[in-house]
Amino acid sequence: MANDKPRPILITIIAILEFIAGIIALGIGILTVISGSIVGDEIAVLGAYAGAILIVAGIIAIIIAGGFWNGWKIMWYLGLIFSVLYIIMSIAGMVMSGFQGIGLGAIVYIIINVIIIWYLFRPHVKEFFGL
User: Fold this and answer.
1) Average pLDDT in the 73-85 region?
2) Nearest-CA neighbor of 58 among 103, 34, 15, 23?
3) 77-116: string of b/e by CB count within 10 Å (b at 16+)?
4) What global pTM score does this model have?
5) pLDDT (tens digit per residue) in 18-49
6) Which run of H or E residues covers position 78?
């Protein structure tokens, strides 16, 4: 922990959810790489590359979860950067699809990341991360 301050509850929840998402991405990535290696056709090989990307994303998510859990200052910045990137990617995806086929999930995802950004700027959260 960055200091002796108690971990804010929402930071605890974010860390746990990020850890779970990382484990899921890691598992799906590993299974995708294995299945792509076994099948061996061109489409499966492309899937294996996607699986490798999922493995990297899973590892990054687990590291971020640990940083949030322990209050590492750098993770406050990374949490902010990734939340902004997720919002931009969600909006870009909606624009590129012509706003067709966007589900409630994309909008909820944007709202969640806006809340995370807002929460990261709360004084007690910044203090927990040593800012």
Assistant:
1) 88
2) 23
3) ebbeebbeebbeebeeebeeeeeeeeeeebeebbeebeeb
4) 0.73
5) 899 889 889 888 888 887 666 666 666 677 77
6) helix 73-96
CB atoms within 10 A of CB 34: 12
CA angle 6, 11, 108 (to 5 degrees): 155
Residue recorded with tokens 């099948």: 39
pLDDT of residue 1: 47
Q: Tell me how far apart the alpha carbons of residues 129 and 125 are, in angstroms, rounded to a whole number.
A: 6
Length of the chain: 131
Three-state SS string over 12-45 comes to: HHHHHHHHHHHHHHHHHHHHHHHHHHHHCCHHHH
Domain ranges for the chain, please list them: 8-70, 73-131
